[in-house]
Amino acid sequence: MPTIDLLFEYMNYFDKEANELLGSYGDGQNSIDSRLAKLPPEARQYLHGIFMDMIDKYPRH
Question: What is the C-alpha separation between 17 and 31, in angstroms, rounded?
Answer without folding.
Answer: 11
